[in-house]
Amino acid sequence: MSTIFNKKSFLLLQLSAFALFSVNSHAAEKTIEATISGYECGDNCYLEIIDSDDGEMIGLCTAPLCEAWNMEAAMPEKYIGKKVRIVIGEAQQFDAEGNVMGTMESFTSIELLD
Fold first, then answer.
1. Residue 68 and residue 39: Cα distance in Å, rounded?
2. Count of CB atoms within 10 A of residue 33's CB?
3. pLDDT tens, 46-99?
4. What is the predicted pLDDT for the residue at 53?
5. pLDDT tens digits, residue range 3-26?
6. How far is CA 82 from CA 7, 35, 45, 72, 79, in A?
7. Least packed by Cβ within 10 Å: which of 42, 43, 74, 93?
8. SS3 letters for the chain?
9. Whole-angstrom distance, CA of residue 64 vs CA of residue 108
10. Measured between alpha carbons, how far is residue 33 from residues 23, 49, 83, 91, 97 in Å?
């Protein structure tokens, strides 16, 4: 009987942790305006931006706009210098084998402003 209780308790703990993580991740999102300064891919693809308040920032490129760039591991040069509105959240970072390495800042939405 105690094994069943422990499994149920463990499942409830996992569900509570997931709910808390989801709420905290959503609450941590921030929107900024910036200029695209670069893009680079390795095991993951990263967008580099310059924000007037925070200076240079690098984040995982996870926005829908990044999908084609990530597939090609290249961003068209025409985007360098473009002004954008970006939503910053968090996403998992993976190694080449697909193992989770951790989490880092992620650009989850990119809106072109010019």
1. 13
2. 14
3. 999 999 887 999 999 999 999 999 999 999 999 999 999 999 999 999 988 889
4. 82
5. 444 444 433 333 333 333 333 344
6. 52, 5, 18, 20, 5
7. 42
8. CHHHHHHHHHHHHHHHHHHHHHHHHHHCCEEEEEEEEEEEECCCEEEEEEECCCEEEEEEECCCCHHHHHHHCCCCHHHCCCEEEEEEEEEEEECCCCCEEEEEEEEEEEEECC
9. 8
10. 24, 9, 7, 20, 34
Asked if residues 36 and 47 have their Cβ atoms less than 8 Å apart, the reply is yes
What mean pLDDT do residues 24-34 have?
73
Domains and CATH numbers, the chain: 29-112 (2.40.50.90)
What's the start-to-end Cα distance of the chain, in Å? 64
C-alpha distances (whole Å) from 24 to each of 17, 34, 77, 90 are 10, 24, 35, 10
**Rounded CA separation 113/1 (Å):** 61
How do 55-61 and 83-94 pair as beta strands?
unpaired
- CB of 45 closer than 8 Å to CB of 39: yes
